[in-house]
Amino acid sequence: xxxxxxxxxARRPAAQGGxxxxxxxxxxxxxxQLLYLCRSAESExxxxxxxxGGAALHEATRELLTRQLxxxxxxxxxxxxxxxxxxxxxxxxxPSPSLLDELSVARRSLADLLRxxxxxxxxxxxxxxxxxxxxxxxxLPAAGRQxxxxxxHWNDYKRDRHLDGDVYERRYLRALVDGPAGLRALLxxxxxSAFTTVLSFLQLEGKLRGPVVAGDGLYxxxxxxxxxALPGRVCLADEADTRAxxxxxxxLRPGAVFLDSLSNTKWMPVPDLAAVVEHLRGGETxxxxxxxxxxxxxxxxxxxxxxxxxxxxxxxxKYAQLGLDRANAGVIVARGEDVELxxxxxxxxxxxxxxVPVLALPRPDRAVLDRRLARLQRNALIxxxxxxxxxxxxxxxxYPGLPGHSCARASRRLGFxxxxxxxxxxxxxxxxxxxxxxxxxxxxxxxxxxxxxxGGSSFGFxxxxxxxxxASAEVGDPFVRVAAGAxxxxxxxxxxxxxxxxxxxxxx
Length: 508
Prior knowledge:
By secondary structure, this protein is α/β, with parallel strands linked by helices.
């Protein structure tokens, strides 16, 4: 038996009926998500076989790729059969702790296996292709599976644009974006390159000649770039105070307003986007929304329709990857002349995403993503509530789903309130000694209890992470962020107890 299995069995809180049944239901849903990855991969393999069948390749190359495609298909089918069996086990008979342990270990193992398979799949799908594919040839083309679809001065240089990106952009819009006709998605190499593309477009097209308004909780790297690009012209407004934010817009008449739909900062403010959209309706001010924190649960274009100059972007390294953390990518959504110019700036700035990272992204599916966000939110709320019950008065737990949060009223209107929480020491120490100690103490306490916890950046994973965020940032306040994972119901209770014990130890 593995150490992780021993930890689950030996250190579990009392597994009483309801929680045990809920944990098994969670695992059944987890197996469904992994089955989705398997079936999506098989669909990609089907398409690749058709494309390679019509590709002009050297025979040895064709034999290699055909053999590898067949091997990948066999592995995915075998994994799919195993997942179907496990899913049936999770829903059959009377719940038992031993069954829970068996299924928990199997889920972790298969999730890790499919993460590796996703990387192999992406490399295999793009193996015959070129970064500079040919559009004409005298003997044998250099275009791989995309031969016959390459147009000169359009998609013959993948830094500018490419067919794999086009396919994902259309899928992303169709599956995950609500709004008026005419929207277009543009992939970028990461979330920050999406932001730099938007900022460059607005600045170089003369849209930011006057002041701009940005939320206090704007992501620290975005805020830094804004202030460097527009020295003395960035007015920070408290997005938790809707009246003050709208007042700043009225007073300054800014060229643009920059907001995070859910801030990735210590206090995690949530702006009232509906009120901001209504205020900007019919005007010339751009509204730029970083939607990474809320993802598909927030639909700014459905609010704005055609009457607001809106640009939305998101890091696809977070929630959209379903915990795989496989490839860096970002996406911009805009419309009309704006999106045509943004596409041009993406080309000139070199911020387009490469082909293999696109192939490593899970196929967008709203139902799958919604279910995953619901799990992450549930776990974040459980962690926040348990910590609130136990931590000393010197420590504050910040989560938008808590009734005491500064934006609780706005967050109540959201279907998803985020998967992260902050642990804040009220009497701040510039040395960050306690914050650093907390990260180490939490992982050590989890290890003593045989519970999975990672010290690491980012969010949206299967396993909860703890991290000192913005530790070396030029702007913004460093803070300890707990990024809730997709643990089952009993695992998250055990994790909450370990985190609370670590906070109590460090706060003493």
